[in-house]
Amino acid sequence: MARSFGKVILLGEHAVVYGVPAIAAGIERGASAVARRAAHPSVRFAGAKLPSAIAPELGEALVALLDRLGAPPFEVELTLEVPAGAGLGASAALGVASARAVLDALGAPQDAARVLEAAAAWERVFHGNPSGIDAAAAVRGGCFVFTRARGVEPLRLGAPVPLVLAVAGPPARTSEMVASVAALRARRPELVERALSEIGELVAAARERLEAGDLVALGRLIDENHTWLATLEVSTPAIEHACATARAAGALGAKLTGSGGGGSVLAVAPEPEPVVAALVGQGFEAFTAVVRPEAEARP
Ligand code: PMV
Fold first, then answer.
1. pTM of the predicted model, to two decimals?
2. Hey, which residues does 7 pair with through a beta bridge?
3. Domain containing 269: what range?
4. pLDDT tens digits along 106-119
């Protein structure tokens, strides 16, 4: 069985589109895959129905992936451990697990660059022009800084980061949320430029705090990042409610993660149980995740 990580963006989403670094991480929950030679390429979901957010394009994505690997037809059986379409990297996790499973079945080496290329071909079917954050997280886990220009730079975590993740309503399409920030930027350029520069400062400070293992300071920076995301109008009442619920239950900080407009919220929570319980009590799907240094991370 081949596995991959899910992903969270700890800070910097949306700003990353305009060149600001983002900090992303892999989480143990991701996807797994088993590949078997078959007459035609096909995708099956083990034990669960196909997630509707990504179901229609899965077959096409598998064909693109096999093509990129130069592989013959395979049937790939998939298991997904994060909600689909919620900004947690589900489609990239499925692509990376599939590529690894096919390489295993071929007896070929698990070459990370080859897996990334195959996953990128898979991701293009869902996202057109993916930034590569999700696939990088799905392959490597750990925590890293990502910029459009330079790609991935590993970040040395001073301590594991305990998170609670919650799903705050059905997600909006990432492309629509990115377009809405672009429209706000056209209407109110000073406001958006200020937000981008403030988020850039928060990311730089968070990078240091992550390296120092300072979760309290990280939590404050995460709260501030969320305030600027709300200024960019990508939060929703459900996201605000989830963040407030997590903070009231003891989280050190909480923010939307990913594109917003719905989707997921993350909270830094050294004592996760009361935070999960409070979120579940308010009707949110919630679960724990730990971001670990790359050398210790296992999907
Ligand atoms: O919704 P997600 O997790 O795929 O994250 C999107 C992140 C954005 O910065 C909003 C868009 C992007 O392409 O970086």
1. 0.93
2. 26
3. 161-296
4. 999 999 999 999 99
Closest ligand 1 atom to the C-alpha of 131?
13
* Residue 39 sits in the same domain as residue 100: yes
Q: Residue 239: which CATH number? A: 3.30.70.890
**Residues 74, 106: contact at Cβ < 8 Å?**
no
Give, in order, the Cα–Cα distances in Å from 243 to each of 131, 219, 248: 26, 12, 9
pLDDT in tens, 175-206: 899 999 999 999 999 999 999 999 999 999 99
> Which one of 9, 54, 266 would you pick to mutate in the ligand 1 pocket, going by the greatest count of ligand atoms within 8 A of its CB?
9
Structure tokens at 268: 């830094």
CA distances from 75 to 39, 42, 47, 235 (A): 8, 5, 16, 39
| Spatial separation of the C-alpha atoms in residues 4 and 168, rounded to whole Å | 24
Whether 14 is in the pocket of ligand 1, judged by its Cβ within 6 Å, is yes
64 and 199 in a single domain? The answer is: no
Judgement on whether residues 132 and 176 belong to the same structural domain of the protein: no
Domain total for the chain?
2
Q: How far is the CA of 31 from the centre of ligand 1 (A)?
A: 19
Q: Judge if 14 and 123 occupy the same domain.
A: yes
